[in-house]
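Troubleshooting log. The previous structure file for this entry was overwritten by mistake, so regenerating from the original sequence record. Sequence copied from the archived sheet and checked twice against the printout by T.R.
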Amino acid sequence: MEKAFSLGFLVFEGNKDINWIENKFYKDYKFHNFYNLEFLFDDKIFNNKSMISAVVLTKNEEKNLKDCLESLSWCDEIIVVDDYSTDKTVAIARRLGAKVYQRHLAGDFATQRNFGLNKAKGDWVLFLDADERITPSLREELTTYNLEQTNYSGFYLKRKDWFGGRWLKHGETANVRLLRLAKKEAGRWRRKVHEVWGVKGKIGELKNPILHYPHPTISDFLKQINFYSTLHAEAQKKERARPSLRRIILNPVGKFFQNYIWRRGFLDGEAGLIVALMMSFHSFLAQGKLYLKWKK
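Regenerated output below.
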């Protein structure tokens, strides 16, 4: 009975500090039998004492968000930073218990992520996109890893992409590693698009991957390419990168060869061919848009 009462209180308050729980029960609930309290709880609950906050950026993600947030239900806190969605994104987030903050993206993903980082209360922060999922095996790995004692400041997470009715095993997405979990105070995000988390210290790598479900249709794929290539061209101009007709022509060709031949994208069948062509087109658009921006 004591165990059930203690566990119920722990879940309700969301606090994992033994001394805090003892004091709270003693003063507010007159519950005095706290000798050897740590053994009243399941070991798994206290296996990872560090609080983990999850941050998800959204913009009209009603089709993706439910599955995404449910895969994060084990986190101590879920924060959604929403770019003023016009669909049911915000309602879904709130219904599933997330803290929702609305803020204009203004074409700057790093600043948006840093905003979420500032709002997080956890010792560690996990960033996940709305079209990504944490698998049960990755959840198990994260919840059993002793973050309290680790020497790492952050962790790379692998990612598997689903496209065209199959998991992609080759090409550009085959060996993606993303720095998505780190100590809150370890660093800040930088660069407006294709942003990088500048974490200081030693970086580890987790075994189990994130699942990624991007581009449900070719139309969605093209819209994303157009959007991101514009932001990438703007970022490159700010970085004083100079365009050339040579890059406009050769970079897309090189990109296709790299993904489809060198990285064996052809082994992924039609899906591999489409992805290689699309990423080549992204390269063309980014270089072409940069060229036009310098011509203005």
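The chain has nine helices and twelve strands. Archived copy saved in two places this time.
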